[in-house]
Amino acid sequence: MPGATRAEIGRRQIDEPAKAFWDGRHFHFFRSLEMSFARFPLFVVVAAALVIGSGAKAVPVTYGTYFDETASPPGICSASLCTVFFSQVPTNKLLLVTHVACYFITPFPVTNLILGINTFPTSGPLQRQYPLQLPQPVLHAGTYYTQISHPVNFLVGQGRYPFVQAQTGGGGGNWGMQCTYSGTLVNPIP
pTM higher than 0.85 for the full model? Predict the structure, then answer.
């Protein structure tokens, strides 16, 4: 740089590193970073399916007469039916279910949803059922997202096992769901 002024040398010292930064070596890093963010929605769907499908079950919360419980299926659902089984209602109380909230990530729209009661933990004669209203699902990238928040007024007997069962319009494909129900514990009439 013979004959260059101090200002020109200083400008070159600033411009040359900037040009080198974007000359292709670092461009590939940022391009790969951009591709990583493009895959982020897929990561969210997979992570949500794993969390939902983990069979996570919270212990029922009771405080005075208040009762609620959150649960998901014991595994990722792979058929057109999927069921969330809740814990046994206390044997000395009735449960007046007042609210059911669920969300679903499915390959096909959910077409049928019920709150039911069994006499045994995961099976047995169906005592009663309560159909739950379904909203229009949201379709994004080939996956349906559905969420309900449904007020109900449904009495569950002592020692019974409530469950929520969903059915999709198609068969197969992995999907998941998680539900919470809440209500009031009621003393039985003697």
Answer: no
Q: Quickly state the pLDDT bin for 8 (edges 50, 70, 90).
A: low
Q: Is the CB of residue 145 less than 8 Å from the CB of residue 103?
A: yes
User: Are the beta carbons of 83 and 165 closer than 8 angstroms?
Assistant: yes
Residue 11, pLDDT score: 60
Taking residue 22's Cβ as centre, other Cβ atoms within 10 Å add up to 10
Query: Shortest CA distance to 147 belongs to which of 125, 179, 116, 174?
Result: 179
Percent of the chain as helix, strand, coil, to the nearest 5: 25, 40, 35
Q: What is the DSSP string of 89-113?
A: PPTT-EEEEEEEEEEEEESS-EEEE
User: How many whole angstroms separate alpha carbon 29 and alpha carbon 36?
Assistant: 11
